[in-house]
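RECORD TYPE: inverse folding
INPUT: structure tokens
STRUCTURE:
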């Protein structure tokens, strides 16, 4: 049972005296960087972690929520306003079809693959209630490097993950071998030069996820005076 005003994502919350939603810091995994005065956005970023498809189930986002997610995903930095990405929402029938296709590709590549292996391939598409493919459409441009266009597609992936998490869903940014397989590209309708930036899986978390170790700032930060 959630406290009034709490979402599935933020079950450990309450209201302060001014009626503002606050998180109960003691229950948070990232409490070293949490502070009760943090904005909801900072709290979300501090807590977010992936929910792998095997730990998610229905419901997924509604059609209206998917539209909202895609609107937010397309609000990313984009040098030159090229919109160098597009989205494919993979509905239930397509997920069944793609799952079966992955099993078929696996059988073609490894005729001795056992049923357990083939079932794992099917479940790559059938386990999550919602999958959105983010396609990088980066191409040579006289002024904007392709690298920057690709980074913008990554930002679109991350916006999707963050927005889905903010809605109370669990999300994972995955690729997998099939994201680099021309047979899957054809099935998904990719044009020449397009690449899969990510398959964003979204669903309802079945259980709480423990966090993973995060890099120490000392290992990744250089401060220049
Ligand atoms: C481009 C990209 C592709 C990824 N593909 C996979 C994948 O295929 N399988 C996987 O287990 N994790 C994959 N990951 C990692 C997960 O998205 C995630 O970062 C990680 O499992 C847990 O980290 P988090 O809790 O901070 O999200 C990928 C990440 C990125 C950025």
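DESIGNED SEQUENCE:
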């Amino acid at each position: 049972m959630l406290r009034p005003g709490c979402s599935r994502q933020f079950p450990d919350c309450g209201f302060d005296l001014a009626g503002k939603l606050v998180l109960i810091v003691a229950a948070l995994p990232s409490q070293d960087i949490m502070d009760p005065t943090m904005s909801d956005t900072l709290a979300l970023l501090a807590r977010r972690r992936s929910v792998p498809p095997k730990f998610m189930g229905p419901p997924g986002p509604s059609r209206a929520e998917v539209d909202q997610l895609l609107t937010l995903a397309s609000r990313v930095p984009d040098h030159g306003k090229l919109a160098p990405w597009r989205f494919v929402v993979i509905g239930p029938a397509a997920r069944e079809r793609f799952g079966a296709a992955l099993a078929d590709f696996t059988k073609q590549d490894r005729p001795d693959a056992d049923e357990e292996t083939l079932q794992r391939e099917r479940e790559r598409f059938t386990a999550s209630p919602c999958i959105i493919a983010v396609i990088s459409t980066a191409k040579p441009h006289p002024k904007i490097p392709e690298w920057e266009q690709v980074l913008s597609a990554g930002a679109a992936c991350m916006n999707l993950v963050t927005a889905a998490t903010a809605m109370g869903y669990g999300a994972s940014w995955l690729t997998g071998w099939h994201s680099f397989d021309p047979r899957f590209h054809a099935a998904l309708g990719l044009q020449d030069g397009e690449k899969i930036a990510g398959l964003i899986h979204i669903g309802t978390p079945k259980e709480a996820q423990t966090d993973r170790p995060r890099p120490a700032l000392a290992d990744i930060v250089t401060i220049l005076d």
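NOTES: The first strand starts at residue 13 and ends at 15.
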